[in-house]
Amino acid sequence: MSFQDDYKFRKFLETQPNKYSLVLDVARDARDMAKEYDDLILHSEAITHSLHGTRPKLKQIAKWESEASEIRDIFCSIEDREICEAVYDSFYASKEAHNLKYVYNNVKDEYKQARIRILTKMLWYSLYKT
Predict the structure, then answer these.
(1) Cα–Cα 20 to 30 A to 48, which of 68, 90, 115, 124?
(2) Residue 17 belongs to what domain range?
(3) Is this structure's pTM higher than 0.70?
(4) Are 68 and 123 within one domain?
């Protein structure tokens, strides 16, 4: 089954006597696809790929998932929203510059700035080891 968009699938379903079986087939195919990609793609995204008859590009998924996972792990340990935002901004400024850069935003406290530097370095070196 391959449809170019969800609308065509819905229209196809309207003509079928056993809609639930077809939906179950798509869900099963999507679940299998997500498992095949080690759950690096969302099940909702796998449903779209299943309906459209396409496959996700693994290189893009793996790189994005790794980066998102690392950022999420570090942010779980940060309770201060200002520090989170500064680390996030610092990381992406560093990524754009291809070198470590620190963006403190409005953080003036010397100890908080040190924490921003440490967390940014941890994130940078865990994702972009030299």
Answers:
(1) 68
(2) 6-52
(3) no
(4) yes
